[in-house]
TrEMBL record:
InterPro entries: BchE-like, Cobalamin-bd, DUF4070, Elp3/MiaA/NifB-like_rSAM, HpnP-like, Methyltransferase_Class_B, rSAM, rSAM_horseshoe. Keywords: Iron, Iron-sulfur, Metal-binding, Ribonucleoprotein, Ribosomal protein, S-adenosyl-L-methionine, Transferase. GO terms for molecular function: cobalamin binding; iron-sulfur cluster binding; metal ion binding; transferase activity. PANTHER family: ANAEROBIC MAGNESIUM-PROTOPORPHYRIN IX MONOMETHYL ESTER CYCLASE-RELATED, HYPOTHETICAL METHYLTRANSFERASE. The keyword Iron applies. Residues 539-566 are annotated as: Disordered. This is Ribosomal protein S12 methylthiotransferase RimO. It comes from Rosistilla oblonga. Residues 163-396 form the Radical SAM core domain. The gene is rimO_1.
Length: 566
């Protein structure tokens, strides 16, 4: 028997992490990476497994030194902290196994320090390694010969996580994406043929999340609808489970923009209580979309880019998006174009990022051939891409201005109010046939959201240190209540958008005030946040049933480091 610790290193402050909102919400992290509980489930029963997430508890290296094996996973944005952890472990003579997105695309990054590395998916190689480790005959490098058959994946061990410290849980329905975006490493790691779990597997995982007290979860698929025909019967069974059990879980997920073309699929998602989707819009510049082979965003079917987004919103599913600046076809006017697009799209929450070339992607290979890659590991301009039609200084300054414009309070809340007040957005999930036929369930949900509104309002006013922001939040909230008081779910979710705004606003302020330490979504250093982490060991009381509408980039071993969704 081996004693095994599996470690997820600290994340830096980012769009996905919502770190500045954690104190308001009474949690320490937004969600667990999906690799931790899945790796535990893949570990043979004779071994003893401990899951450690540095985002919710500090690392005790003396304790880690007592384990037979310490596994470390991590994405590209965690690479600096991963390196520090591995060096500290090796100085203590610890056996280190390394896997995850970053080592998958940069195998030599850690200079041979780990005792063993795992490249790509690990459903077969992790158990194989443990069997060989027992006899002292393990390999130095493991890589699966074939992609994982998703119908064989076990139920992740969510019970081994410190779930009370997370805003919400995570689970995965499928892997892979059919599209060919040049910058994306998902298709490199997981392929272009989506592979889907059986509905029975997903139901088992839902029951597990439910037993752990989770009320909201992020479906971490990079494109849930990559195989529309295949996912529909799965969603039908999930919808029936929700209906039988009184809708115990709410979901967010990631999907491609062609979702708008299939109303049957949107209705199934609503019946599953999928309330929001993150969509990789990337750019309103059509030439940039064609350049990066994001053809699904430029095809005429379904209308213009804005019309497609509005179709999804008007149906009753909220849209968050990813935007990128720095494509070869982007000129200095792209920043104003992005700002204008955000306003017209009615999307409040946008992850704006600089184009970044991830190793092993077609973009990385092309720019390397063109001599347009910054090979420094900690890029001073926030990206390793040397732009084609503007200077690096112009790109960085324009990006920061775009972020500032996006999260200036008046601008942000004008977008939110356009959707929630002027256009009277409503969640389709609460208008499905199952809800209409169950008045008691409607009453229960109305009560929950009414109570939740009061609790979250108290948290927001108590946890927002900026007096002027508190005043803005109060004014906007009271205005929303005057117009939508008959819809408590809308009022509740509006408050979650205030907490999310606080995070984005503070993150953007810090970026602008300290441009010398500027970092972008994908190329960040860990140094500023780590000194302050886990100081909040006594967080504010948390409403365990809160379903805050945030998102995070999660991983399943060894989920590729991503910059944006499909």
């Amino acid at each position: 028997m081996a004693t095994i610790a599996i470690v997820n290193p600290l994340f830096e402050v980012s769009y996905w992490g919502m770190e500045h909102a954690q104190a308001i919400m009474g949690t320490r992290a937004n969600m667990p990476v999906a690799s931790l509980p899945l790796l535990a489930a893949l570990t043979p029963e004779e071994h003893d497994v401990t899951l450690i997430d540095e985002n919710v508890e500090p690392l005790d290296f003396d304790r880690l030194a007592q384990f037979d094996i310490v596994g470390v996973t991590g994405m590209s944005v965690q690479r600096f902290r991963m390196d520090e952890i591995i060096q500290e472990l090796k100085s203590r003579g610890v056996f280190v196994a390394l896997g995850g997105p970053w080592v998958t695309v940069e195998e030599d990054y850690f200079h041979g320090l780990p005792d063993v590395i795992f490249v790509g998916e690990a459903e077969t190689t992790w158990p194989q390694f443990l069997e060989e480790w027992k006899t002292g005959d393990h390999q130095k490098r493991y890589e699966q010969a074939d992609r994982t058959d998703m119908t064989t994946v076990p139920t992740p061990r969510h019970d081994l996580l410190k779930n009370k410290h997370y805003m919400f849980g995570s689970l995965q329905f499928s892997r892979g994406c059919p599209f060919q975006c040049e910058f994306c490493d998902i298709i490199v790691t997981f392929g272009r043929k989506p592979r889907i779990k059986l509905a029975s597997q997903i139901i088992n995982e839902l029951e597990c999340l439910r037993s752990e007290g989770m009320r909201i979860a992020f479906i971490v698929d990079d494109n849930l609808i990559g195989n529309k025909r295949g996912i529909k019967p799965v969603l039908e069974e999930v919808a029936q489970w929700q209906e039988r059990n009184g809708y115990p879980l709410a979901f967010m997920t990631e999907a491609s923009l062609d979702l708008c073309e299939d109303e049957e699929l949107m209705e199934l998602m609503a019946r599953c209580n999928i309330q929001a989707v993150f969509i990789g819009i990337e750019s309103p510049n059509e030439e940039s979309l064609k350049e990066t082979k994001k053809f699904q965003n430029v095809r005429e079917r379904g209308g213009t880019l804005l019309e497609k987004i509005h179709q999804i919103q008007d149906f009753g599913i909220e849209v968050w998006c990813g935007l990128i600046v720095g494509f070869d076809n982007d000129k200095p006017d792209i920043f104003a174009m992005q700002t204008k697009f955000l306003k017209e799209s009615r999307i409040a929450l946008a992850m704006v990022g600089l184009l970044h070339a991830i190793p092993k992607t077609p973009l990385h290979a092309r720019l390397q051939q063109e001599g347009r890659l910054d090979l420094n590991d900690d890029q001073p301009f926030g990206t390793n891409v040397i732009p084609k039609q503007m200077s690096r200084e112009t790109l960085r300054a324009g990006y920061m201005k775009t972020m500032f414009d996006a999260y200036t309070p008046d601008v942000y809340f004008d977008r939110l109010d356009q959707l929630y007040i002027q256009d009277r957005f409503r969640l389709r999930a609460f208008e499905t046939e199952a809800f209409r036929k169950r008045p008691l369930m409607r009453l229960r949900y109305a009560t929950f959201y009414t109570v939740g509104f009061g609790v979250l309002f108290w948290k927001l006013m108590r946890g927002t240190p900026d007096r002027e922001l508190r005043k803005i939040y109060r004014q906007r909230i009271f205005n929303l209540v005057r117009h939508r008081f008959t819809n408590p779910s809308v009022c509740f979710y509006y408050l979650t958008k205030c907490a999310m705004h606080y995070h984005q606003h503070k993150m953007t302020q810090q970026m602008i005030e300290h441009p010398d330490t500027f970092v972008s979504t994908i190329g960040k250093s860990m140094r500023t946040r780590r000194e302050a982490t886990i100081e909040q060991q006594a967080p504010l009381p948390v409403l365990r049933n809160d379903p805050p509408q945030t998102a995070s980039a999660a991983e399943c071993p060894p989920h590729a480091a991503r910059s944006h969704s499909r």
